[in-house]
Amino acid sequence: METDTSTLARTAPAVPAVRSVLNAAVIVAALGYFVDIYDLILVSIVRRPSLTALGVSGEALVSQGVAILNWQMYGMLLGGILFGVLGDKKGRLQILFGSITLYSLATLANGFVHDLATYKVLRFVAGVGLAGELGAGVTLVSEILPARLRGYGTMIVASVGVSGAVVGNLVAKLLDWRAAYWVGGGLGLLLLVLRIGVHESGMFRKLETASGVSRGDFLSLFTRRDRLGRYLASILIAMPIWFANAILVFFAPEFAVKLGVTGPVSAGDAVAFFYGGLVAGDVASGVLSQVIGSRRRVVLLFVTLLAAAIGVYFAVAPGASPRTFLVLCGLLGLTSGYWAIFVTVAAEQFGTNIRATVATTVPNFVRGLVALVTTSFLWLRPGLGLVGAALAVGAVWFALAFVSALSLRETFGVDLDYLEPD
C-alpha cells in the first residue's frame, strides 16, 4: 500500500509547528493581556464593595457603577486611537510595554481612592493604558508567526488573557477591594521585566525603512468606502460579546433578583463564570478556525450560538438556584468565545502600515461602545423593565453583527506583508 507523501508533508510537522508558537512574543503578549483583563474587569468585580466603602448605596450602586465603567471605556476609546497610531509609527513593541506601564500605575493608584471623582479619573487613565496592550500584542504576534499558525498564536493570547478575570475574582475574594487593585498594578509592573528577549516585528522593521509610506494614518480608514466598510464591520461583529458581558453579567445580581433566582448572586462569581467560559470558547473557536480554514464561518457560528445562549439564560433562570444561574453566565461566556477570532480578523483585514492602528482601535471601539449599550439600556429600563430593555438593546447589536460578519472577506492564511493604498 502506497503512502501519501503529500499528506505526510502536511501533517508530520504539525505538532512541532504548534509548539513553536510559544515564543517570547506570544508569551509576553498573553501575560500582558492577562493583566489587562484582570485590571479591566476588576471594576465590575469590586463594584459593590468599593462603592459601598465610598458611601454609595441603593440605586446609586447601579448608576455610579455604570458611570465608572463608562469613564474607563471612554479612556479606552482615546487610548485605542493614541496607541494604535503610535504602534504603526513607533513600533508594536514600544507600545505594548508603554501601555502596560500606564495601566499598571493607574490601577495601583486606584487602591488609594477615597472619593468618586478620583475613582473615575483613575479608571479613565487606566482605560487609556488598557487600550494599547491587546492590539499591539495581536499585531506583533500576527506579523511574527507564519500564516498557517497565526490563529493558534492569537488563540493563546486571548485564552490566557481572559483568564485574568477568573484570577481577579479569586483575588477579590481573598483580599479587600483596595488590595485587589494593588495586586493588579503590581503584576503589570512585574511583567515589564519580560521585555528582554522580545523582538520587534520584521514586517514593521521593513516598513520603517520604506520611503514615502504613510504610517498610522487613522483618518485614512475613512477616505475609502471599502476600507471604512471593513473597519466598521470588524468592530460590529464583536458587539454581542460586550452586550452579554456589560448587561447580562455586569448586572447579574439585579437580573438574578428580577428573574426569581432562589438566592443572591455575586457579581464577582458571575464575571468569573463568564470569563471561565470565555477561555474555553476562545480555545474552541481558535482551533475550529484552524481546522476548517475559515475565520468568518466561525464568527457567524458563535454569534448564532450566543443568541441561543441568551434565550436559554432568560428561559432557565426564573426559579433557578444561584449555582444554575452562574452556569448560565458560563454558557454566555462559552458562546462569546470568538474574541480571539475577532481580534485576528481585525489584524488580518488591513495592511502593515495601518495594521496596529486597526488592531488597537477596533477592540477598544467595541469596549468604548459599551457606554452606548449601557446608556441605552438604562434609558429603556423605566419603560420596558430590566428584561425588556436588555432584549431590545441586544436585538439591535446582534442584527448588526450578523450583517457585518457576512460582509467581511475571508482572511484565513492570507499573506500580511502588504500595504494599504493611500
UniProtKB/TrEMBL annotation:
Species this chain originates from: Anaeromyxobacter oryzae
Annotated keywords: Membrane, Transmembrane, Transmembrane helix
Alphabetical list of InterPro entries matching this protein: MFS, MFS_dom, MFS_trans_sf
Domain Major facilitator superfamily (MFS) profile, chain residue ranges per copy: 25-412
Membrane topology: Multi-pass membrane protein
Gene responsible for this protein: yjhB
One Pfam assignment: MFS_1
PANTHER family, per database record: CARBOXYLIC ACID TRANSPORTER PROTEIN HOMOLOG
Protein name according to UniProt: MFS transporter
Major location (coarse): membrane
PROSITE patterns noted in UniProt: MFS
TM stretches of this protein: 21-46, 66-86, 93-112, 124-145, 152-172, 178-198, 231-252, 272-292, 299-319, 325-346, 358-380, 386-408
Compartments, record wording: Membrane
UniProt keyword annotation of Transmembrane present: yes
